[in-house]
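Q: Fold this one first, please.
A: Sequence and structure below.
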Amino acid sequence: MDVSLSIPQLFASLTSSNAAVALLLSSLVLVLVLSVYFSLPPHRVKLPGPAGIPLLGNLFQMRAGHARSLAHWTKLYGGMFRLALGEREAVIINTYSGVNKTLIQQGAAFQSRPEFKLWHGAFSKALDPDAPTTIGTTKFSEQISKYRRLLTAQTSAAKLPSFNHFAARRYFRLVNLLSESAKSGVAQDLGFHFWTTTIGISADILFGQRFDEDVTRLVADVNIKAFRQRSLATPVHDYVPLVAAGERLALAVASPLRFVLRPLGLSSWMDSIYNAEAHATELRDAEVGYCKALLKDLHERLDAGDPTPSQMGDLFRAMDDGTLTPNEELRLATTLTGSGMSSGTGLTWLGALLAVRPDMQEKAYHAIEEVYGGEAPDPLDTDRVDYIKALGMEAGRYFASIRLGFPRETHEDVVVDGVLIPKGVLVVYNSYEINRDPQRYDFPEEFMPERWMDGHYGRTDVKQPKVGVPHLNHGAGRRVCMGVPNVNKMFYANLVLLLHFFKLERGPLDDEALANVFPHLRAVGEASLEVHPIDDQVSACDPQALPLAAGIKLTVRDPEALARWLADGHRELDQWERPNPTDTSLHLEAIVDPGIRGHY
């Protein structure tokens, strides 16, 4: 074959000589014709919204970036508008008052969840067609209400102190990690420090077990990457059945020709489809694998009379009748294992911002000093320092790391402002835009912790009662995130220790530091000094806005005080490690298949 031929000539040559390629091209043309002339997005909701194109609707417009696309349309169409996402019709809520009218005042109608082919199919069902999805991503049912009641009892603020010994060990480890980073004298990204602390706490308290470093890294990495499978408006075949059918047909016809197409650079579309499915299966394999192993270990410890408090263990002890099936146990476990992810994301964003705001660092440090009189703060003594708490609340509002919340689906027909929204419609609350609603927040584009202090609740120009959620990063109304008490507690503890012991300064990442960025997908670039919530995210269409890598150089404020704390800190609380003749920690090789371990 003459490889010097032009691409059109090459296709003509292949078509004339290979019936399979001819069939492939004919199939693609047929799918395109059917798509354009016979497929129109649904239009049941009589709301304004941008015009789309046949078959695809507004899918490609969304792919330009969720936050900016929706912000532009909000200016044109108001606080609630309609989108067509392939075969799905979506209602987008963009204002705080819109959330109040829907998720809160008519919560029963908005309490279900949509299903997506990639998440609920390729990912959640990859290993087992009966495998459970997480509670938070499942359509509403009385069974889901039962599960939420069970987990709410284990995630409440009143319950959390019984797990302090697990959290305390993680905070001690965090300060050790930060101390080692400071000793290096070079800027490092702190994502690993924060995510493995927050997700590590979630896993520890869930199973009542201490995990080694490899397991902690695995659980954190899998949960961050698995969440990316839940993006809205991508991939296209998740929303357009004809595209999905066309891809399947094209793959069936073209797959035998991959050995020909790949050297010619014509197989990338096939590889992307295969790789997406394989990656989803790999992530699910890892998640199911370690959760099953951890549940098995937990049951063995409970049978042996182990009294260690844990969320799953305490739940099992309270259910003597054993009413949960293995799949139900797995559903509960996968729901809570990575519940510290959003805290780690928010801390990574905020750390990069504080590193260029020494004024905020000093204000925080002096606020801690004022409360604790020069002593080290107790990370378990949550919410004592108002400014630290305000920093956390403002980070949740400003960065809005869960950009489009957790999508809802109408459970029944509902009328909002005279507009009928039928049952089964996808409903998305646009967290990023709602968190910048000028009716709710003054100076919405500015990072201002003071909006949450001294009687203020969202606005600096007026004092008002603390009514409603401060921001939409964790949802609202029914199906709100059950882990909010733990999320807030972890965020506060990490932040108060970081700002008490260390000063932060931005600096470039050298080659070694860049290679150690966690997760490594964030190393595609370094965040600007502005730390812009949109421009400095890894992907404009990720469901959770992961920040680009950020080099932070740490300087210890008082080396002697830090050394004393690391040597003796908080031993009087009996929260740290004690000598144990039996090492009960679980290690990576005990819970994960060797083929999966090689990827982490």
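Q: Good. Now the second chain.
A: Here it is, same layout.
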Amino acid sequence: MRKRKHGFLLLVIILFVFCSLNLPRSITPLAHYSTPASGKMSTEFSADKAYEHILHLSEKIGPRPAGSQNETKAAQYLYYMLEQYGWKVREQPFSKIVSNSNPLKPEHKIQVINSQNIIAELPGALPETILLGAHYDSADISAPGAIDNASGVGVLLEIARILGQEKHQKSYQIVFFGAEENGLVGSQYFTAQSDLSAIQWMLNLDMVGTPLEIDIAGKTSAPPELVDKVVTIARQEQIPFHISRDFVVMTREGSQGGSSDFSPFLDQGIPALGLGIAGRAEGYYHRPEDRIEQVTLQSLDTVGKFIPKLIDSVEVTGSGQKTWDSYYLPFQLGSFVLIIPTLGLRILFILIIFFTLFSISRSFRDKEPFIQGDLKEYVLVGVGIPVVAFLVSFLSGTGEWLWQFIKERVYLWQAYPGVFLILRVIMVLCALLIFLRLLRSFPQPKGGKLYWLVGVLILTLLSIILGLYRIDLAFPFLFWLFCFNLFLYYPSIVLLFIGPYFIYKTHWELLNSQQWSGFYETIHLYPIVFIVLYGLLFIPVLLGGLYILEKGKRPWDQMLKRLFIPALILGVGIVLGTGLIPNYNKTNPQPISVQKVWTESEEVVLRISSTDTLSKNLIAELDSKETKVGEDKKTLELPIPSEKPPLQANVSVTDTGGRLLNFKMAMKYGRDPYLVRIKLESKRPFKIREMDDFIPIAKLPKKIALEGKEHNGSYTLLLERTPPHQGVTQWKIAAEGIVKCSIEVVFADQSPRYSIKLPHISSEYKEVYQDVFEF
């Protein structure tokens, strides 16, 4: 009878999970998202016309960073084309102050971002509006931005041409956002300053290509019904796609809250999602290689024909701000997307917690005692399991750390991050097998039921803490807890490795996203933190493994003995073989910066630098008697013939008493710079009291102060401004000690002296004026 009850309970949970999964339905109208009665577009999308727009933006205009003249030229081009297509167009200029909130970059950084949004309207018979958006700026002065995001702009311009030739009931709005690459600045400004009451839903294009990324991730996720509808149409059109997952490591807890310009609309309660290229960004992402050659007509055609179908098929009841279930979890199985709503997660949470309590009570009712044998054996195992867990976590990266030292590289994974992730998983399995065998060789208590109880309590505590913080974040541990409960009834090695499946899945999703490189760099920046975090996660795995060794029906001890030597050999082989994996390849080259640098003495040098150590081939090619290679081998300098600097600078500081200093900087530019950067450093606190429009104090949010922020015993403040720049900048600064001021002005290098063309190297060229003084 007891077995029947257990089976019935398991069946109820499985049925509930299945019933709470919403499969994307067919074209059947949904509660708020249905098929409109209006007719479909008759004008055909032309990939060739979209391609012409992309060619003009990326090649004829070129790189378009925020505030630059090229961005202004692009804005004028968009304005002109939209007017030609019959739209009512206006500009929305903005100047916004942005403060750095990245914990990995502790310096206090304040930026002034100047740009403009281009807003076009096409009124219909009804006020309800569909908004389409794309950003038209590029990442840097060296990035032409063909894919990111001239491709989205070109497709949207062609959609504008089609809509302008159609009679329609609905109203349409197209917004080309500026300064997206600076942190969604243009879209955040638009949503904060504009009337959104007529908008039904918003679709954003960022990096057009296939397979298609249907991006729903932000601080607030896209409405599940809207996701359902878009996915259904993509499946019907047989378009390969991937739906983004909004895990904490990717978006929700980030400073921007999303990856593109649809996210600020979600924050304002406007249904929105984005279309882009699925998968990890290629090596041309934000690089000079992002040229027109990366664009394919087939991708333009696929996305360009998909968007009109979305416009025709998705109908949202009402307009303006809405509320919806935003903490659901989507799971993709091929072309089907399963959605667990928040209510389903909460009920599932309660059921699994009750199942856990039932399992614990049952374990206490069993005749087998939890503690058998000498207490010293429990102490030995209690100390051994955490030590082994942290050793497993540490050993997972030994191959990379060893070869980083031997190859004198900071990172090894750029070309093949997937291979390194797989090697880490295999290394973890090998280490687990080795240490489980070693643990079993020590005296330890019999029975092993205590292993199960401790593991269940750890996972229950984790699930409750995360569930109280954010229910969707608790799901991976809830699933793991459910599997751990099943150990009591079915002690199986399969459950041991299926339990943390969704934690593996999180990392795999992260690997195939633009956030992967930042996550990996974070691991290398704070290795001890991640060794501890992952070590804690290995503790339940070890507890479950020891329980299965005791209770499993198969002779697992014999298998461990047989696998010990192969696991040891395979682990050593992985550590030694890691060095054979190329660090860079043609698709993912090593990025280097080639800067023509003028110093305060007006001497000019060519400075070549990288976040990683420079290749020996590059150093050999540029080697000469006067070449200076940095100790870390990340920088290389060589003198070049003197040239006239792109600006003339004059800096003066006067002390007005009481350590209140008047600072004045006069600059005469030969041409417009891309960026002016001023860094202040001091061993004592300092604060800027007055300042002109370089950083307009009157516009500063209350939470931002123009003062040095303490880090590692030094106070720093970094000020940046995009064009336009004033010729004279002055402010008053209150300082308690000596202040070091570093000035850096960045220009595009229009005629590079050295063109570096080596395999597996991506070069970007800039001109930089630098000055350093103390007061």
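Q: Anything worth noting on the second one?
A: The chain has 21 helices and 25 strands.
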